[in-house]
Design goal:
The chain has 268 residues and is an alpha/beta fold. The chain is built from 8 helices and 10 strands. Helix 2 packs across helix 4, helix 2 runs parallel beside helix 5 and helix 7 crosses helix 8. Adenosine-5'-diphosphate binds next to strand 2 and helix 1.
C-alpha cells in the first residue's frame, strides 16, 4: 500500500462571480496549482489567513466540490463525491436541530442503512466524546463545545479512514478548545486515522500536527510544509514549542508577502 492516502495534483478552483460566465479573468481564483500528498495516518494541519482557500481545499478532498483542473485521489482512485471513508466536520452549526444528540450521531448510520447493525456504537461514541447523560438533549440545549463534540462523534461513527476538520474549534473559548484538541489527539493515537485539520490558529496546528501546510493569501497556493519535530506529548509553554511558533510566524509573514499582503497581525 502506498505511503500516501490522499494525493492532490495540480488542482485549481475558480469561483464564478454572480451573473458572469466562469473564466479565470472574471472569477475568484480560490486555489492555484495545489500539489500535496497526505501520508496515511498522519495529522496534517493547513493554516492560512481567512479567505485563502482552506475550506475550498477541504471540500474538494471531501468530494463536496470539484476542481476546474487537476485531480484529487484517495488510495489512487479519483475522488468523485462524498464518501463515508472521509468524515467531515464543519466549522459550526452543522447539527440537525430537530434531532437529539444520539440521533444526530446516528444520522450517518441511518443514511447508510446500517443503523440496526451498528446501533450499539452510538453510546460508545457518546462516551468517547464525553457526552454521557446528554443523549436525549437537542442541539439548542447544549453548549457550542458539546455540539462540536457531537459533530466529531457523528463523523467518527462511520469509521472513516480520513477525518476532515474545518476549524471545528474556531468559535470556542480557549478552555473548551484545549479540551477538544486533547480529545482529537487521543482519538488519533488510538485509531491512527488520517486527520486533516484546517485552522488559522498556529498554536493549535503545532500542538496537534505531524506536518503543517502554510498557504499564501488568495489565490491560495502552498507556500511550504513544515515538519513538526516535537515529542508526541507537547507542552504549549516549552521552549521548543515557542521557538517553533516564532519560526512558523516568520514563515507565515513571508507567505503573506507572497500573496496579496493581508495584515498578518490579525492572525497572531
Ligand atoms: N461559493 C463561492 N462562490 C464564490 N466565491 C467563493 C465561494 N466560496 C468561497 N469563495 C471565495 O473563495 C476564496 C476562498 O474561500 P474559502 O475557501 O472559504 O477560504 P478560507 O476557508 O481559507 O477562509 C474567498 O475569496 C471566498 O470569498
Ligand atoms: Mg474556511
Amino acid at each position: 500500500m502506498s505511503d500516501s492516502i490522499i494525493e492532490i495534483r495540480n488542482v485549481n478552483r475558480v469561483y464564478a462571480l454572480e451573473d458572469h460566465p466562469l473564466d479565470e479573468a472574471s472569477g475568484v481564483q480560490a486555489l492555484r496549482d495545489i500539489n500535496l500528498k497526505v501520508k496515511r495516518g498522519e495529522f496534517l494541519s493547513i493554516i492560512g489567513p481567512s479567505g485563502c482557500g482552506k475550506t475550498t481545499l477541504l471540500r474538494l478532498i471531501g468530494g463536496l466540490d470539484e476542481p476546474q483542473a487537476g485531480d484529487l485521489l484517495m488510495d489512487g482512485e479519483k475522488i468523485k463525491g462524498p464518501d463515508p471513508k472521509r468524515g467531515y466536520v464543519f466549522q459550526q452549526g452543522s447539527l440537525f436541530p430537530w434531532l437529539t444528540v444520539e440521533n444526530n450521531i446516528a444520522a450517518g448510520l441511518r443514511a447508510r442503512g446500517v443503523y440496526r447493525q451498528y446501533k450499539a456504537q452510538v453510546s460508545k461514541f457518546i462516551h468517547m466524546v464525553g457526552l454521557d447523560g446528554f443523549e436525549k438533549s437537542y442541539p439548542h440545549q447544549i453548549s457550542g463545545g458539546m455540539a462540536q463534540r457531537v459533530a466529531i462523534a457523528r463523523a467518527l461513527i462511520n469509521d472513516p479512514e480520513v477525518l476532515l476538520l474545518d476549524e471545528p474549534m474556531g468559535a470556542l473559548d480557549s478552555f473548551t478548545r484545549a479540551d477538544i484538541q486533547d480529545k482529537l489527539l487521543e482519538i488519533h493515537r488510538e485509531d491512527h486515522k488520517t486527520m486533516i485539520l484546517v485552522t488559522h490558529d498556529v498554536d493549535e496546528a503545532i500542538y496537534l500536527s505531524d506536518r503543517i501546510v502554510i498557504m499564501t493569501p488568495r489565490p491560495g497556493k502552498i507556500h511550504e510544509i513544515v515538519n513538526v519535530r516535537l515529542p508526541e506529548r507537547r507542552e504549549r509553554t516549552s521552549n521548543d514549542f515557542l521557538e517553533l511558533r516564532k519560526d512558523i510566524m516568520k514563515r507565515f509573514h513571508s507567505a503573506s508577502a507572497e500573496g496579496s499582503g493581508v495584515d498578518m497581525a490579525a492572525y497572531i
